[in-house]
Write a structure and sequence with these properties.
Layout lengths: L3 E9 L4 H14 L3 E8 L7 E9 L11 E6 L2 H7 L3 E10 L13 E5 L1 H7 L6 H12 L5 H11 L8 H22 L1
Parallel strand pairs: 1-4, 4-5, 5-6
Antiparallel strand pairs: 1-3, 2-3
Amino acid sequence: MIQTEEIIVAGFGGQGVLSLGQVLSYSAIMEDKETSWMPSYGPEMRGGTANCVVIISDGRISSPLVSVYDSAIILNQPSLDKFESCVKPGGYLFYEESTIVNPPTREDIHIFKISAAEEANKLNKKQVANMIMLGSFLEVRQIVKLESVLKALQKVLPERHHHLIPLNEQAILIGKDLVQKQLQETN
């Protein structure tokens, strides 16, 4: 059976929403999977809303247009308000807790509250909050391998930022750990 994961990543411009999606797509390419990355953002970019749809599949992707998702990675309240209802029943929603005033209320999906901004501040690099979110997502939805993500970062990050790849890897591992703790608490 063909495995397909349809993901919405959404937040404000400048939070690394589009680069998180790119890293996922490039990771899929590294593993010879089919992928689609479709960004959408307002004219103001930084500070405006931004989202991208990422589809990763073992088989052919018939259309990049999706209106309901297997997973959502949400970085702000307006995005949660817009996309919470678009997660398929039984799907997964990961949200950055410090930016959400009204947390998700659905009971038919798996919800993970991630303290990505707080953890990124501990690393003195708020820009890696998106990688903490990515690590959280990949701990639950193991659709690509960590090695592929690290190779993808070399493609997505400009060469002048390649020295930050180890920090991004650390951020991903922190995200994985945050979710692991939540899963242990619920069991």
